[in-house]
Design a protein that fits this description.
88% of the residues lie in helices and 0% in strands. The protein contains four helices and no strands.
């Protein structure tokens, strides 16, 4: 259950960023606006926390799977 929850959290963070870029709000909207206004330095500051959150969630997910010896096939 924990592995599936972490997988869904990671997937939702990625999806929220993409959906936000098509005018749904959130960090994706801020990222899109910065890109449209050519504020690339600001855009990087939006990408770094998004990337960090996804990487941390993926790391936790990997460690939980190794600890409980859950294979990728069982997650899907």
């Amino acid at each position: 259950m924990m592995v599936h929850s972490l997988f869904r959290l990671e997937w939702n963070m990625r999806a929220a960023t993409v959906v936000g870029m098509i005018s749904a709000g959130g960090i994706g909207q801020a990222l899109f606006d910065a890109q449209q206004l050519f504020h690339y330095q600001e855009m990087v500051w939006f990408l770094i926390p998004t990337w960090a959150m996804i990487m941390v969630t993926d790391l936790i997910n990997t460690r939980v799977r190794k600890h409980w010896k859950v294979s990728e096939v069982m997650v899907l």
